[in-house]
């Protein structure tokens, strides 16, 4: 009886923990949600992270070490080599991630080598296998899809090489840490923005067409689920069509074109990233739609010439969300793990921010996008803050 009570209480604790994590907005696969909330005592040779070392929010506490229990802490060396396995370098956001990794690695005195899987899971597995053979000191990986990459990523960690997973999670936590923003919350914010926009315009119904990311990549599910939650604020908002365009602008153009031609009234086009939202804009333009009447929603908000911040300033995207790449943070944690033998949190969540016409110029000034105005709002804000 006592035993049964104990296992029932344990189940209730796990359920409450899971609920708490889900309510924070994280998409937590069941296996991951059962991780204890407190840091495990550090194993010999390791020290647990301190709050000051964390940029972002700790979603999952530290394990006893950054490696499996049978591994020694990394050996001290004069020069370390970091390997970066990128899902697809051809996408602008991923180029930005690689650039940030490269700059941070250089500043830290690390060598860094890159591999580009070009959206091919088999290629990414063999890229990582090559890094294993070469004997790199730490792997950073942004997986193309979760399930096909999980075993290979686990294999590296089990070979006593620290692994930092960036942006797209895998299906278990057999790695050193995960760093990424909360895609459920971003999707929800996008949904709430749409709900309000539709209400302000008095649109009933307010018809939404969705362009989804690659389905096996967790951000696609999370951005879709979060959005559906966010639009609940306004029952007039209806998702009337949805198609995958695998994060790519060139696939989004024909997908959006087909959905626009099949549906006379489309008020909102939601792309799970900016390139797909821009593709939808092009499709709407060539279908002869009144572009001023449609809200185009994207995610990424890069400060580059063809990035989302400029697009909002130029009036194509109505809203987008800054999705941090985590490149800089990954290198900071690599340093702590390799040199100081710090056990990182198992999951660190990075913040995101909304960019719409009300703040696009300030954001542009802050991130030095091509239309940044010196002496504008940013300078005024900085001057005020320094007083
Ligand atoms: C690039 C990208 C970004 C997106 C992220 C999600 O591959 O599609 O545009 O925000 O991946 O993982």
Description:
By secondary structure, this protein is α/β, with parallel strands linked by helices. It has two domains: 202 residues, 3-Layer(aba) Sandwich (Rossmann fold); 141 residues, Rossmann fold, CATH 3.40.50. It is built from 13 helices and 15 strands. Strands 2-14-7-6-5-3-4 form a seven-stranded mixed β-sheet, sandwiched between helices. The chain has a four-stranded parallel β-sheet with strand order 9-8-10-11, sandwiched between helices. The structure holds beta-D-fructofuranose (FRU). Beta-D-fructofuranose (FRU) binds next to helix 3.
Secondary structure layout plus pairing:
Blueprint: H1 2-23, H2 30-33, E1 47-48, E2 57-60, E3 81-86, H3 92-108, E4 111-116, H4 121-134, E5 138-141, H5 146-158, E6 163-166, E7 177-181, H6 183-201, E8 206-212, H7 218-230, E9 237-244, H8 249-262, E10 268-271, H9 274-286, E11 295-297, H10 308-313, E12 320-322, H11 327-340, E13 342-343, E14 347-350, E15 353-355, H12 360-367, H13 377-386
Parallel strand pairs: 1-13, 3-4, 3-5, 5-6, 6-7, 7-14, 8-9, 8-10, 10-11
Antiparallel strand pairs: 2-14, 12-15
The chain binds beta-D-fructofuranose (FRU).
């Amino acid at each position: 009886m006592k035993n049964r009570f104990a296992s029932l209480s344990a189940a209730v604790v796990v359920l409450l923990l899971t609920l708490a994590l889900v309510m924070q907005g994280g998409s937590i696969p069941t296996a991951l949600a059962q991780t204890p909330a407190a840091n495990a005592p550090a194993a010999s040779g390791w020290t647990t992270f301190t709050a000051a070392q964390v940029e972002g929010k700790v979603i999952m506490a530290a394990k006893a070490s950054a490696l499996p229990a049978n591994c020694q802490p990394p050996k001290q060396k004069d020069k370390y080599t970091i390997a970066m396995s990128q899902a697809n370098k051809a996408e602008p956001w991923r180029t930005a991630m690689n650039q940030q990794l490269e700059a941070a690695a250089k500043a830290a005195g690390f060598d860094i080598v890159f591999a580009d899987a070009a959206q091919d899971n088999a290629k990414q597995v063999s890229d990582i296998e090559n890094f294993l053979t070469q004997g790199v000191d730490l792997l950073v990986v942004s997986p193309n899809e979760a399930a096909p990459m999980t075993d290979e990523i686990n294999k590296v960690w089990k070979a006593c090489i620290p692994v930092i997973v960036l942006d797209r999670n895998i299906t278990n936590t057999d790695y050193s840490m995960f760093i990424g923003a909360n895609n459920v919350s971003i999707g929800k914010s996008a949904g709430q923005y749409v709900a309000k926009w539709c209400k302000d315009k008095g649109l009933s119904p307010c018809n939404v067409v969705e362009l989804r990311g690659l389905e096996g990549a967790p951000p696609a599910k999370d951005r879709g689920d979060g959005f559906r939650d966010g639009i609940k604020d306004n029952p007039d908002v209806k998702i009337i069509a949805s198609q995958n365009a695998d994060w790519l602008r060139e696939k989004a153009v024909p997908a959006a074109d087909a959905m626009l031609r099949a549906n006379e009234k489309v008020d909102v086009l939601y792309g799970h990233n900016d390139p797909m939202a821009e593709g939808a804009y092009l499709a709407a333009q060539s279908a002869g739609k009144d572009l001023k009447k449609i809200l185009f929603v994207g995610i990424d908000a890069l400060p580059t010439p063809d990035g989302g911040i400029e697009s909002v300033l130029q009036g194509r995207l109505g809203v987008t969300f800054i999705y941090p790449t985590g490149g800089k943070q990954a290198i900071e944690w690599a340093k702590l793990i390799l040199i100081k033998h710090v056990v990182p949190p198992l999951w660190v969540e990075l913040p995101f921010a909304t960019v719409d016409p009300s703040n696009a110029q300030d954001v542009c000034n802050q991130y030095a996008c091509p239309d940044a105005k010196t002496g504008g709002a940013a300078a005024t804000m900085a001057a005020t803050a320094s007083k």
